[in-house]
Amino acid sequence: MAIIVNLDVMMATRKMSLTELSEKVEITMSNLSILKKGKAKAIRFSTLEKICEVLNCQPGDILEYRA
Question: How high is the pLDDT of residue 1?
Answer without folding.
Answer: 60
